[in-house]
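FAQ: What does the model actually see?

It sees only this:
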Amino acid sequence: MKTFKKGGVHPPEKKTTNNCPVVEMPVPDELRIMLSQCIGVPAKPIVKPGDSVACGQMIAEAGGFVSAPVHSPVNGTVKKIEPTRTPQGIWQDSIVIETDKENPVSFPTPRSDGEVNDLSPDDIISIVGDCGIVGLGGATFPTRVKLSVPKGKTAEFVLINGAECEPCLTCDDALMRRDADKIVKGTLLIMKATGAKAGMIGIEENKPEAIKSMSDAAGKYSNLDVVTLKKKYPQGGEKQLIYAITGRTVPAGSLPIETGCIVDNVATAYAVYDAVYNRRPLTERILTVTGPEVPNPGNFLVKNGTSLLEIMKFAGGVPEDTGKIIAGGPMMGRAVSSLESSATKGLSGLVVLPESTSLRKPEGPCIRCGRCVSVCPMGLEPYLLMLQADVKRWDDMSQSGVLNCLECGCCTYSCPANRPLLDMIKLGKQELRKIK
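And it is asked to produce this:
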């Protein structure tokens, strides 16, 4: 069974919501929509307080080449444009929309199969850009940019990431079971846009229902294949997925296109389908809410801008013994500082931890066991990078390859001394970016 070669771990899966179907949350009375929802430049508002907006209308345009526009998920009225805290507590501008309770949502007429077939690759890329689609596997890189293959490069394969190797999260699994045909059509659109001749969908072996559903859908097309992968984290990383499926290695500091591959998440492929066939911009997504004491955990379809507190109420409320809520999965996610924040395009889940499991264990001295080195999927030396960060040797960290770090957390997870390896590595990367 295929997997990547170097490093990796397999934490307890704890996918207790893997049999939960997708449930749509009610439309909120108010939405707070962040202007920065992708890697790159924040979007620029093109509406003002008092304006009426329609469902799917662009309310903020892309602020640069690496950027993505933002759209209204509802019919309503712009109340104000003001700073709002992100889930991690950083102030960021947002557009507050009051929902039209009489007519909250409306949708355009879908394109026919004939109209879709007549679209050129450039047409597809333009639609994807105008609809604000970003990578929904966590990185939120603008999909328009990814599909624009640089001159002199060739896309041979489109790889669709259905690994969902992060513990606790099951939103991609639920989507693959529900909408396999649409994901496949989205994959074919990505292949047409990039000129790739073949597409492969990688899914880990612990999702048998998703594998069957996707295999049945992909089996109708000779240029598509579903690849079953061994359970291993972080298999969903672009470089790890490329090696697992094709055996090709992305050179350090290079992009996947150097290997002839374009990598997108299954939810991104679905969003491409929705944009091209249904003319719908990216205004909602499926996310997982889970935790050992959450009353009603599940996979919920949530409008962009929905309050995190409203999401938790829909899941039965915040348990009394909650010590921490993580936005994303437990390996790569970040602690939520305030539930007054709102859902964004990149939010894949909320993992609620009780007080007893949310506190860090006491840090001890490094015992030179080498575990952090053996599990690093990028072949780095996390113990050394932490020491360099501790004495602010930023140039040394750069020479040690810190910018190649995936921030997957395998090193911290494996350290028997409970050293905050990833925290110090992130600090070093942050300082190097400031210097550059």
